[in-house]
Amino acid sequence: MSDRLRVKKTYKLYVGGKFPRSESGRSYAVTTPDGTELANAALASRKDARDAVGAARKAQGPWAGQTAYLRGQILYRAAEMLEGRAGQFAEELEAATGEPSRDAVERAVDRLVHYAGWTDKFASVLGGANPVAGPFFNHTKPEPLGVVAVVAPQDDPLLGLIDALAPVIATGNAAVVIASESKPLPALSFAEVLATSDLPGGVVNLLSGKVAEIAPWLASHGDVNGLDLGGVEDAALAAELEASAAETLKVVRRPGRAGASLDLVRQWTEYKTVWHPAGMASAAGGGY
Amino acid sequence: MFEYAPAPESVRPEIREHYGLFIDGKFADAEDGATFKSVNPSNEEVLFTVAEAGEADVETAVAAARRAHETVWGPMSGTERGKYLFRIARLLQERAREFAVAESIDNGKPIKETRDFDVPTAAQHFFYHAGWADKLEYAGLGADPRPLGVIGQVIPWNFPLLMLAWKIAPALACGNTVVLKPAETTPLTALMFAELCAEADLPPGVVNILPGAGATGAALVDSPVDKVAFTGSTAVGRAIAKAVAGSKKKLTLELGGKAANIVYDDAPIDQAVEGIVNGIFFNQGHVCCAGSRLLVQESIAEDVLERLKDRVATLRVGDPLDKNTDVGAVNSAEQLERIKSLTEAGSDEGAESWQPACELPERGFWFRPTVFTGVQQSMRIAREEIFGPVLSVLTFRTPDEAIAKANNTPYGLSAGVWTEQGSKILWTAERLRAGVVWANTFNQFDAASPFGGLKESGYGREGGRQGLEAYLDV
To answer: Structural domain boundaries of chain A?
Structure first.
């Protein structure tokens, strides 16, 4: 038995590509299911949530402007990084859930690979040319909503997180994620994976803390375009958040079943349709 | 300018003195006996009275729609459902002139538009969606898409029959039944459509039409429907989104807009001027996707404005039933007040107003085509949806500035771009935050083309393969 003192990790937030503490200076104790203390996590505040939205907004345009091929490679790189650290994540997950977790990590890697492959395909699967009754070329394609706030699932701290997050960023959105409240450590470590995968800072921002405290600021924030309530377990809170999101007409995913991956891709995109005259002069006076 | 002799439309549809609610295949008065009047906006004469649906009527209609969904329409094969919709499309085409004239009378819009746009496009929507009814598994929405059930639909007064078609055709094609509330000021063509459904032998309860005002709409939103589809103002859309929060009801919203119409210095100017005019004066500007903010590149602004004013001066404002009329009546006294108050705010805030010297009829609700220059982004006429024949002109120097100004709005429904350079069109269209972008054209619509907005213009699409999602459980 070595008498070396182990270097413990300080779990911090992930905002704008950096790992800050909560500006509030608060933290909370994270334990195993049987109550053994694991670490302290930052207890994010309203200011942290707003900073995260600001970072996401700044990053979203350039991220959406990258080629789909590059977005796919970055997601695949994240899968590579996660695979390489599978042992660490299995330990963290087991500590968080009390269950053997190697399999959950492997499935999380595979899920990332799955979405890495969607980036350069969903537009052709969902969009297309429309045969309108006139001399026009008319084309529809899905585009990212913008900034999506995600309340990650509470009981499935890694795979659940990736299930919710991957379709958001694969489609060119930026995300602000509230990690599982009682099991945030795997998510906070996953931020390190993202930070070493060439994902531009701000595309994913991760907050740990209380859903009931942070989520209302995200639901009411004017610069958030989509809200995923998948991880909100309190039905009354979910209804309040949805009503609050209605003020700025956000796209909301209610708690409950997550559909197939293409359903989630559709959830966080919206169609843009462009009309071009196909001729030298059209009835409306256009033409080129 | 040429002098034109009046060319009044000669067909006159039969408009009854009184219409009931259409529930379960039958017309009936409201349970509490409430009625209201529909007024011709071009002369303020009362056209007819109509039953006003209350909560009890909403309950009855939703129950009828539920029964029809469970016993007839839901179990019916897609092929058979499609044949009913084809039949409706054909009947609409047969009775097109009658519907066009009725729409023009009840709404105030020019007969030229109802005849050439509203009614034919409504018929196309039924014809298009009829063909989807037996092909839903090929729509790319999963192997076994199912209907949602009963749909509550609330539509606006600007395109009464066309908005009805946008709502009812896809809902029925996907196997749902509907309860639809037409707008308070324009129930006529919806009630004529109810008669047409009976004529088509559509099973009772599949389509139910409940005229009424805001309270009727609210009762429908709160009723046990499976989904609400709304087209109208952002304020009401917001209230509906709040009302369904926490429920299982699905929701799609097609709300307001403040579209930018960008004219670059290399645009085909004469065509662009036509597009600007069509963009804002089509349907008296009562268009959610109207090109109400003209963004013109500074170097050509003077030239464009001069040609624009020359063109606007030739618009014929007046009798909606005259085939030469370009701009008809404003739909209601209330809307006229809103237009007046916003244009006054424009002048008060320092924008310069210009109107052609056209005569307006003495009676009815009228507003001259109006062009505001010297508009700043902070002004109400640049930010708020006027929903009238009022254009706000702003200028820009660089493409980046054009994009920044175009996107500087909480809305995101539509936008236009004018340039001869194809790559500039694609560059611009890519950056515009809008659900529909018209390049070198404006205000084009088609059943095969998805329509709908981003941000505070709502969510969901109507039309095209993508529009089916709004009415399917996938």
So the answer is: 27-277
Q: Do A239 and B246 touch (CB under 8 A)?
A: yes
Strand partners, A37: A31
B291/B239 same-domain check: no
| pLDDT tens over chain A, length 288 residues | 578 998 989 999 999 999 999 999 999 999 999 999 999 999 999 999 999 999 999 999 999 999 999 999 999 999 999 999 999 999 999 999 999 999 999 999 999 999 999 999 999 999 999 999 999 999 999 999 999 999 999 999 999 999 999 999 999 999 999 999 999 999 999 999 999 999 999 999 999 999 999 999 999 999 999 999 999 999 999 999 999 999 999 999 999 867 789 999 999 999 999 999 997 554 444 333
Q: Compute the nearest-CA separation of B39 from chain A (Å).
A: 32
Fold of the domain built from segment(s) A27-277: Aldehyde Dehydrogenase; Chain A, domain 1 (3.40.605)
**Tokens linked to A103:** 């399999």
Same domain, B245 and B267: no
CB A71 within 8 A of CB A203: no
**Contact residues, chain B, for A226 at CB < 8 Å:** none
Closest CB from A130, A145, A272 relative to B448:
A130
Q: Where are the alpha helices (DSSP H) in B200-327?
A: 214-222, 234-244, 269-281, 298-312
CATH of the domain at B410: 3.40.309.10
With vertex at residue B365, the alpha carbon angle to CA B362 and CA B367, rounded to the nearest 5 degrees, is 95
Which chain B residues have a beta carbon less than 8 Å from that of A282? 440-441
Catalytic residue among B174, B197, B288, B289: B288
Query: ∠ at Cα B107 (B87, B338), nearest 5°?
Result: 140
Residue B420 counted as domain residue: yes
Q: Give the whole-angstrom CA distance, residue B461 versus residue A271.
A: 8
CB count within 10 Å of CB A196 equals 14
| Contact residues, chain B, for A277 at CB < 8 Å | 439-441
Using the CB atoms, write b or e for B208-233: b if 16+ within 10 Å.
bbbbbeeebbbbbbbbebbbbbbbbe
What is the C-alpha separation between B36 and B183, in angstroms, rounded? 12
